[in-house]
């Protein structure tokens, strides 16, 4: 199948608005089942695949997502460009609620996740270069598309990937700030590294849902507020993707 783009939707994005002539693909992978069926349809005249990372009814927690199956299944369907949409908390000043950002770096604080295709017996071990964890070309395309759609998106930032599903303590976020993280999320890794192992161009579109612990005025993080902010940010995703596809 010839796919122009695949989207992995995070919290708040369980179906892709505007996809037409939709079909569904149930893919079995050597790594188990993906988070659900992959929806394939057309958008701006291009073939696009969509997969809800947490399942379409949000039943799969970040540490239980089968990242390997998801990335493998999209690659198997023909995806060579993937945009991961991720809800995040904002740490540094410009990353306030409802901001959209295309990060350019990652620090991985997750543990115990199956994070490589290379741990299968007999598979040749590849040490991928991950100095720049995201595809420069696809990042630039997302940023150009956002500008064309007149949607503000911040270029760059360091995404700190935490284990979840709980949110972080203030001390953990303070440490992440010292480490240089601008954003915190639970699902950015190992997705980006797995995409690199399969030579997929991968970029992250991060949607800021809340100030990370201790970064805003609130003493606790309110879930209804997270979802309200996420709803507003998520509405911007489809126009950016449509502009990206139309621009090619
Ligand atoms: N921390 C981690 N992941 C998140 C957050 C957060 O504050 N908000 C949305 N996803």
Brief description of this entry?
The protein has 6 helices and 11 strands. With 248 residues, it is an alpha/beta fold.
Please give a handful of descriptors for the protein shown.
alpha/beta, Rossmann fold, 6 helices, 11 strands, 248 residues, single chain
Describe this structure in words.
The chain has about 250 residues and is α/β, with parallel strands linked by helices. It has one domain (about 5-115, about 130-245): 3-Layer(aba) Sandwich (Rossmann fold). It has 6 helices and 11 strands. It has helices spanning about 65-75, 135-150, 170-180, 190-195, 225-235, 235-245; strands spanning about 5-10, 20-25, 40-45, 45-50, 80-90, 100, 105-110, 155, 160, 185, 200-210. Strands 1, 2, 3, 4, 5, 6, 7, 8, 9, 10 and 11 form an 11-stranded mixed sheet that branches. β9, α3 and β10 (about 185) form a beta-alpha-beta unit. α2 crosses α6 (about 235-245). The two termini are about 20 Å apart. About 45% of the residues are buried. The model has no long low-confidence stretch (mean pLDDT about 95). Bound molecules: hypoxanthine. Hypoxanthine binds near residues 87, 167 and 185.
Strand element count? 11
Element-level helix/strand string: EEEEHEEEHEEHEHEHH
CATH class annotation: Alpha Beta
Class from secondary-structure proportions: alpha/beta
Average of pLDDT? 96
The distinct ligands, each listed once, are:
hypoxanthine
């Amino acid at each position: 199948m010839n796919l122009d783009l695949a989207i992995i939707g995070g919290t708040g994005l369980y179906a892709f608005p505007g996809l037409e002539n939709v079909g569904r693909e149930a893919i079995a992978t050597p790594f188990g089942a993906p988070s659900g069926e992959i929806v394939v349809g057309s958008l701006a005249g291009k073939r696009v695949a969509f997969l809800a990372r947490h399942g379409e009814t949000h039943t799969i927690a970040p540490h239980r997502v089968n990242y390997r199956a998801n990335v493998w299944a999209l690659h198997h369907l023909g995806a060579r460009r993937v945009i991961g949409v991720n809800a995040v908390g904002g740490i540094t000043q410009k990353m306030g609620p409802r901001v959209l950002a295309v990060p350019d770096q990652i620090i991985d604080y997750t543990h115990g996740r199956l994070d490589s295709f290379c741990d299968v017996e007999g598979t040749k071990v590849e040490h991928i270069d991950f100095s720049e964890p995201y595809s420069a070309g696809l990042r630039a395309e997302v940023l150009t598309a956002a500008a064309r759609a007149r949607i503000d998106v911040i270029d760059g930032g360091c995404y700190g990937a935490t284990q979840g599903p709980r949110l972080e303590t203030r001390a953990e976020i303070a440490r992440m700030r010292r480490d240089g993280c601008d954003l915190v999320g639970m699902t950015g890794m190992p997705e980006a590294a797995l995409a690199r192992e399969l030579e997929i161009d991968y970029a992250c579109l991060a949607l800021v849902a809340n100030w990370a612990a201790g970064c805003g005025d609130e003493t606790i993080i309110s879930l209804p507020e997270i979802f309200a902010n996420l709803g507003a940010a998520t509405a911007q995703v489809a126009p950016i993707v449509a502009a990206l596809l139309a621009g090619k």
